[in-house]
Amino acid sequence: MSSIIETSSIIETLRVIYPEQVFLEILPEDIEDISRQQKDYSYDVARRHGFINCLVLNRFLAWLNTEAPIEETPNVFPSIDETIWEFVNGSVLTIGQTCLVLIPQEAIDTDQLCVPQEWVDIPEWAADYYLGVQVNLDQNWLRIWGFTSHKTLKEQAEYDSLLRNYCLDKELLITDLTVMWAASHFQTKEKPEVHSLPVLNYTEFEEISRVLLQSDGYSPRLLVTDSQPVDDSEVAFPLWGALMAKDNLRRQLYEWRISSVKNLKPTPIISATLSNWFEEKFEEWWLPLEEILNFKLGPRTWGNVRSVSTSIKIKRGKILNFSHRLNVEKVALVIAIQPAPDTKRETAVLVKVCSVVEDSLPVGLKLQVDLGFDSDEEMVREEKKFESVQLEFSELPGSTFRVEVSLEGEVITEEFVV
């Protein structure tokens, strides 16, 4: 009880010194609740980011719902979950049409508000306002010590290219949140203008994930560069930003990083759900064949198996990049599906690997299909100097299978749901 009284006294004193700023008390149960429910992270700094951000977000939401002079109900931004703190410090929420990013810090020095580049330069994440939050766990309080707009950050902040933060001096911050509420109410806020990032395909995701998984024990942001990467130990920011913006890819990278530190088998990422293809809902990295092949596959190239040889209904493909042969011949993985003619429920699947330029496949390339993660059943065919290799089978909807294409010791794996 005495510590609560002491904290309340400290907060009242601080409110006298900084009358325009918001001070909130941190209760013991706040810390206990977060400690019990906290998600796991792969390194200590991310674990601390997760704890502090969750604490700040919960306390600020509680204050918005009970004391803030707003009419709309605040909501946590739907696409941002706790996995974000594996990579970036900060939390985001919306109040009506206004988007806010909270940037917590435990440092005593509040001379600058430093906002990670991701919250500013990723279009899906860019906010209207950025709020600096100082957290003092020794005295059990936090304070909103100032805010700024996206436009001000871009025009007046100093960009730290080493840490990739936009840093704005405290003299340029507004300390009174009522100014922000008024701007939002009268629709006078400055809408952020952000350059678009490239569309990240699945092959690029696999390639940059190999780089980002090398940062064992520290933030993968340290492997990101604003310039052209000098080698395969760096990732350019546009690709990094595109990955962060894709919720499913960001969550998959998070799972891989957690699995790597726990020495667990990584959770497989589903490359495609084939049942959606019948409704013309395709994953963006599975493209029409005419967009990836320099020639047309004739009817004979689909084989003679009765289930799929006569009238392939849907065909999609993607380029496979073997890291040790990036400048050599490319190969494509093609998936073709149609309802199996001998059953009302099963889907006939053809898996094919072919050269992109109508040439022989690399000697020693192997195609393998594992029908079900818990099954030992495999179908393997290895051909030498052949235009394509393929395997055909039928599976029930909801079944899973794995495709592995290997060459010279390197294996590319794709997971599918029928």
Please write out the topology.
Blueprint: H1 2-17, E1 22-25, H2 28-37, H3 44-66, E2 74-76, E3 91-95, E4 98-105, E5 112-116, H4 118-121, E6 129-136, E7 141-149, H5 150-156, E8 158-160, E9 165-169, H6 177-185, H7 202-212, E10 224-225, E11 235-236, H8 237-245, H9 247-262, E12 270-273, H10 274-277, E13 314-320, E14 331-339, E15 347-355, E16 366-370, E17 378-382, E18 388-395, E19 400-407, E20 410-417
Parallel strand pairs: 4-6, 10-11, 12-20
Antiparallel strand pairs: 1-7, 2-3, 3-4, 5-9, 6-7, 8-9, 13-14, 14-15, 15-18, 16-17, 16-19, 19-20
Portion of residues in beta strands equals 25-35%
Q: Helical region count? A: 10
Low-confidence stretches: 299-310, 373-381
Kindly report the spatial arrangement of strands forming the biggest sheet.
1-7-6-4-3-2
How much helix is in the residues? 25-40%
Radius of gyration equals: 26 Å
N- to C-terminal distance: 59 Å
Mean pLDDT: 82
Q: Structural class, from helix and strand content?
A: alpha+beta
What characterizes the major β-sheet?
6 strands, mixed
Number of strands: 20
Return the string of H and E elements.
HEHHEEEEHEEHEEHHEEHHEHEEEEEEEE
Overall 3D form: elongated
Q: Notable features of this structure?
A:
10 helices, 5-stranded mixed sheet, elongated, single chain, 418 residues, 26% helix, alpha+beta
General description of the model:
- The protein is α+β, with helices and mostly antiparallel strands.
- Helix content is 26%, strand content 28%.
- The protein contains ten helices and 20 strands.
- It has helices spanning 2-17, 28-37, 44-66, 118-121, 150-156, 177-185, 202-212, 237-245, 247-262, 274-277, and strands at 22-25, 74-76, 91-95, 98-105, 112-116, 129-136, 141-149, 158-160, 165-169, 224-225, 235-236, 270-273, 314-320, 331-339, 347-355, 366-370, 378-382, 388-395, 400-407, 410-417.
- A six-stranded mixed β-sheet has the order 1-7-6-4-3-2, sandwiched between helices. Strands 12-20-19-16-17 form a five-stranded mixed β-sheet. Strands 13-14-15-18 form a four-stranded antiparallel β-sheet.
- A hairpin with a 2-residue loop joins strand 19 and strand 20.
- Helix 2 (28-37) crosses helix 3.
- It is elongated and about 80 Å long.
- It starts with a helix and ends with a strand.
- The model is unreliable at 299-310 and 373-381 (pLDDT under 50).
